[in-house]
Amino acid sequence: MPVLGKKIFYQMLRGGATKTSSHGCELPPDAQSIAQVLKSCAAARDIAKGRDIHAHILRSPDHSQNRYLANLLIDLYSKCWSLGEARAVFDRIEQPNRFSWNVIVSAYAQRGHLLEAKALLDRSPQPPSVVASTAVMVAFALNGHLDEARSLFAAIDSRDCVCWNAMIQVLVLNGENSWAKEAFNRMPCRDSFAWTTIIAMYAQAEEPDRSKAMFDSMESRDVVSWNAMLAAYAQNGLIAQSDELLLRFPHWNLVTWSIMIQALAQAGQMDRAEKFFQTLPRKDPMCSTVMISGYGISGDIQRAKRIYDQTFEPNVVTSTAMLTALAANGYLEQAELLFESILDKNVVTWTAMVAAYALNGRPCEAFCAFEMAPQKNVVSWNTVLAAYAQVGYIQESKKSFGKMPQHNLVSWNSIVTASVACGDLQEAQDMFFLMPHKNVVSWNVLIQAHAQSGHGSDTLGLFRIMDLEGVKSNDNTLVGVLSACNHIGLLRAGREYFLSMDSDRGIRPTFQHYCCVVDMLGRSGLVKDAEELLERMPFFAGSAAWNTLLSACSKAEATPKIVEEERFSLPLLGEDEDAATFVLLADIKGRVQGLESQELSKWRYTGCKPAPASKLRTKLGSV
Predict the structure, then answer these.
(1) Which is it for strands 26-27 and 19-20: parallel, antiparallel or unpaired?
(2) 143, 112 Cβ separation under 8 angstroms
(3) Last residue of a domain, which of 64, 95, 126?
(4) Is residue 318 domain-resident?
(5) Does some domain include residue 257?
(6) Number of domains in the chain
(7) Range of the domain at 39
(8) Is the pTM of this model over 0.85?
(9) In this structure, what is the dihedral angle of CA atoms 61, 67, 69, 74, given to the nearest 10 degrees?
(10) 405 preceded by cis ω (within 30°)?
(11) What is the pLDDT of residues 82-138, one digit of tens each?
């Protein structure tokens, strides 16, 4: 605690005027000052100083039975993750009031102790307060127990806007968009928060048009709702629509700038992002953080450092972003030095350092940092879970998963991914079917694992179940499905899935999807069709795509027309030519001609690069 805070604390012991608190408790002379310091300790998570003040309260006959101070102590200990001390204070209160019950029930709920929270809620004065009930409802929902959460919600008699908004938000977080929209429609008083939650929900579901429809339906809009609509466009890469909406904005705030800067950074338009950043009325740490993250993702660490150095008194969030950028670009030592220099490290900072070690192939240091972290949240646990999986420590992954105080969707996805990474597909499938809730990532992990293992029928079976359960597939899902069709020779089905991607599922085929179909056609002996698709696809082929065609032709003992006509040369590969292409080409030409050309043979056996062929101006990447 700052020196000034200590001075105030010692001055308060000399007394002051009696005053009535906002909770209706008459406070002795210095209780008001004690209350203020307790609130400061809670905000700063300073449990050591809080315990000193608690000891003073217990020694004072005027304060030891003061319910208001006891309530503040419960709040302090719960925010410092010391539920045992919070409960001890609560149990000493002779007649807990509604505020006391709210604080202790919320404390247990927010820390993931669901059964204890529910038991306390049932013991509280009936009917339970909407505050406590909402806290328990949210806790159950966030831990995947949606049915229990909905039952708790239904049992609340006097639901206020906070309660309705909380229910809608947790439904969205659990991917239950239809239920969230139903709750929104039933909501008697829709405030701006409810509207923006639904706008954000559709944006997250990659349905910005429905976000726009909700936005247009609002009778009155504030800057929060305008920003939510801007974020809906930005998150879906619709930069032109974002620019157009900006022209209609009644006024901008720092969040507006931040959304636009982040959208441009994610789109790789760092020059435009920089221009937006330079027009800021003041260099806010939030926008600096976005710029640092953007440059970190693009690999321009020097510009990220420049932004960080120009930030006036960077806060812990900005410093953590810089740490992440350094680690992501291989500057682990500098990331460690920055970590040591951050005085007000929080759980996010510690988690970022754990992730930094894991990302740079230092799992032992990642585990040590995790153990040293004074506080851990579900993200911390998920990070160390991923670190164990990265090095193949499946047993340690399972132990960590079992020790976690609470599991969210990411936790379940991580343990399934860990099992897949360690080659235990049966374990992954068992964990998958134990999941209380699944999203598209969960399905993709298992679908792609089966596809890569050659289990085509299992892959397609899972895909059908996914469709029946109403989970919206994405481009990664279809990569697994097309790979499965390829493995088991379902050419017709594979073609149908590919051709209907855009029209039936709203998924535009990517380079990877085209490569899957090229491989499928080549393996089926339809070399002409494969080659034609490769030449007409709206992407530059390069060595990866040509390797796919040549590999398929080699296995099917077929010869592409481009090889027969001697049209294959280095310019077709662009900048990414590699040895594999010429080894495959040597195999095909050797099979057709009965021998290898001297140049290709030299590449095949020595790895020396063939001399470039004459310039070929065929453009394969035109739309």
Answers:
(1) antiparallel
(2) yes
(3) 95
(4) no
(5) no
(6) 2
(7) 1-95
(8) no
(9) 120
(10) no
(11) 888 999 999 998 888 888 999 899 988 988 888 898 998 888 887 888 888 999 999
